[in-house]
Amino acid sequence: MSKAKPKAKGTSRASKPRQSATRSKSQPRAGPKVAVLLSGGNPQIAKADGDAPVQAYIAAMPGWKRDIGKRLDALIVRNVPNLRKAVKWNSPMYGIEGQGWFLGFHVFTHCVKVTFFQGTSLRPVPPGGTGKDARWIDIHEDDLDEAQMATWIKQASSIPGWETGNGSFRRRT
Known about the structure:
Blueprint: E1 36-37, E2 43-44, E3 48-49, H1 51-60, H2 64-79, E4 83-88, E5 91-96, E6 100-107, E7 112-116, E8 135-139, H3 146-157, E9 162-165, E10 168-171
Antiparallel strand pairs: 1-2, 3-4, 4-5, 5-6, 6-7, 7-8, 9-10
Helix pairs in contact: 1-2, 2-3
């Protein structure tokens, strides 16, 4: 059996100062909420439409991947009029209203994966993937070919894309 430790003289519950449940004016406020990084360093950003959640995702991308995210976003904005942005499934998505999503990207441990949802229709076809339609390219530090990416972005944005419905993708026809 364990013995209870004797209380030190002069200590009791009543002698301890009470802490207020409210913050005093001298206490600093909590800083801005920092995004949680999921496996591989992918930022966890709440599902939402618009540029703001996409920029929050990019700002939370770790290390060199943030620069890739900024460059990709700027390249897409420069090459696609009437652009629609959102974060879905913890990934920035780019599309055109009424035409669907044409591109998304996602952070992994060693790369940023850019997926073209109708990638088999692009020329040349991006190297990653074996499915019916989607193709992707893994971008590593210092290997973003902006000229090739701009060509794919222009092509992909001119093809009917994917629309989200019931939590899944479906092809727009």
